[in-house]
Automatic annotation (TrEMBL):
Domain Flavodoxin-like fold: 2-159
Organism this protein belongs to: Celeribacter baekdonensis
PANTHER family (UniProt xref): FMN-DEPENDENT NADH-AZOREDUCTASE 1, FMN-DEPENDENT NADH:QUINONE OXIDOREDUCTASE
SUPFAM superfamilies: Flavoproteins (SSF52218)
UniProt protein name: FMN-dependent NADH-azoreductase
Entries under Pfam families matching the protein: Flavodoxin_2 (PF02525)
Cited InterPro entries: Flavodoxin_fold (IPR003680), Flavoprotein-like_sf (IPR029039), FMN-dep_NADH:Q_OxRdtase_AzoR1 (IPR050104)
Length: 189
């Protein structure tokens, strides 16, 4: 399943979405189910997948709005996480489990990897990792492949593309043999 949220972005959540999502299913009015229909479909796609592939460019050092909107529809009480204050300071518990996440990213500059000269400016990778539990992904199960130096358009960019293509082929071989289905949320440009 592929969903191009760059070309067809999901709408932002609003107070009506929150109202509907936090109303127990048996108490929902018709409009609430209608408001949650897209969210249900997106969650169904994630539930059916073993591997989730995100094409996520870094925009101004962070997450594109379309990706944030997609995540907001996936992060849903009773569907992808439970909330119980009896668990103390950690009331959120993921419902989905055992999935892999591959992030294919483009970054105009370079050095955003851990230990890199711009690592402190990378707000994309930490944000994705912080939300991964909503998809059933442990932070240790995130693979990131990034193309860098796009703005420079020089040999470093060419080398980055070659390295990213090789890493992507290796991941495809690795995960292609073991998965029943993948879902892709594509934001690439």
């Amino acid at each position: 399943m592929t969903r191009d949220i760059g070309q067809d972005p999901v709408p932002a959540i609003d107070h009506r979405f929150i109202h509907a999502a936090f109303t127990p299913p048996e108490a929902r009015e018709g409009w609430m189910s209608d408001r949650l229909a897209l969210s249900d479909a997106l969650i169904d796609e994630v539930e059916a997948a073993d591997v989730i592939v995100l094409g996520a460019p870094m925009y101004n050092y962070g997450m594109p709005a379309a990706l944030k909107g997609w995540i907001d529809h996936i992060a849903r009480i009773g569907r992808t996480f439970s909330f119980d204050l009896a668990r103390g300071d950690v009331p959120i518990e993921p419902i989905l489990q055992g999935k892999q996440l591959i992030v294919l990213s483009s970054r105009g500059e370079f050095g955003f990897e851990p230990g890199g000269p711009r690592a402190h400016m990378n707000a994309l990778d930490p944000a994705i990792a912080a939300c991964a539990h909503y998809f059933g992904v442990d932070a240790a199960d995130i693979q990131t492949v990034a193309i860098e130096y796009q703005e420079f358009k020089d040999a470093r960019h060419d080398r980055s593309v070659v390295a990213a293509e090789k890493a992507t082929r290796e991941l495809a071989l690795r995960f292609g043999k073991t998965t029943r289905q993948s879902v892709s949320a594509d934001l690439s440009v």
